[in-house]
Amino acid sequence: MEKISAVILTKNSSRLLSEVLEALQTLDEVVILDNGSSDNTLEIAKNFKNTSIHYHDFIGFGAMKQLGANLAKNDWILTIDSDEIASKELIEEIASLKLDAKYCYTYDVKNYFNGKHIYSCGWGNDRCIGLYNKQYFNFNAELVHESVIPLNNNPMQTLDLKGHISHYPYKNLEGFLDKMQKYSTLFAKEKCGKKQSSALKALSHSIWCFFKNYFLQKGILQGYEGFVIASYNAQTAFWKYLKLYENNENSHH
User: Percent of the chain at pLDDT above 70?
Assistant: First the structure.
């Protein structure tokens, strides 16, 4: 069995962290990279023998995940968020495989809201590159919407795992609003000067996003939860492009 280090970014992540870490207890190491928790996140992490805890100011999701991988003692990295619980099947599958360093491994992500499995609004058919060897791959340095990329001109090759991770991104509506604020600001900062925007573009992106999520991607079939998610995605699109417009205007003065 290859020795694997899970890497988890945390900030006030106490909501699900016990369950997240319990699912990873058989791994050789879990790297916790915290960027300023004020709740009991770190006390929870200290209860697990295979955790190592590190601290760094937030520098963007991609750069934070790069740093987490660099802090890991093993080459094999399982990247997992503090609101994602790995299935027993996935951990056993990873342990049983002879891993090939030239491949990244993907798993299915099952997304939940209000206790309901969400298959609509673009939340279904969600596969994630979650396991890679850091000698061949790493995250890019994007502030948000980071992704795994090959190093040294290696080809991007993936293999699918059968196991899955359960993702519980939002406890309630307040969680949606907090994330909307955070992600829209990061998007506007990252794209400033690189992408054009306007109030009309913000509005059109928002309307199209709601129509796509709610009707084309069948959010309407998932009742209240589908409506909330489609509305959240639409509002996030609106504020992303409006903040980008403001940032672009301010950069010219």
Answer: 100
Task: Give the per-residue pLDDT at 134.
Answer: 98
Distance CA 82, CA 35 (A): 13
**Rounded distance between C-alpha atoms, residue 103 and residue 91, angstroms:** 18
Q: Spell out where 140-210 has E strands.
A: 148-150, 158-167
Are 17 and 10 a contacting pair, CB within 8 Å? yes
> Is the Cβ–Cβ distance between 128 and 166 less than 8 Å?
no
Report whether 168 contacts 115 (CB < 8 A): no
Q: Are strands 104-113 and 126-133 parallel, antiparallel or unpaired?
A: antiparallel
165-188: per-residue pLDDT in tens? Answer: 999 999 999 999 999 999 999 999
The band of 253, judged by pLDDT with boundaries at 50, 70 and 90, is: confident
E-assigned strand segments in the chain? 4-10, 29-34, 51-55, 76-79, 84-86, 104-113, 116-117, 126-133, 137-139, 148-150, 158-167
CA distance 238 to 125: 25
Q: Token pair of 35, please? A: 């960027």
CA distance 103 to 70: 19
Predicted confidence (pLDDT) per residue in 229-252, tens digit: 999 999 999 999 999 999 999 998
- Rounded Cα distance, 94 and 65, in Å: 20
Location of structure tokens 């740093």? 67
C-alpha 141/C-alpha 48 separation (Å) is: 30
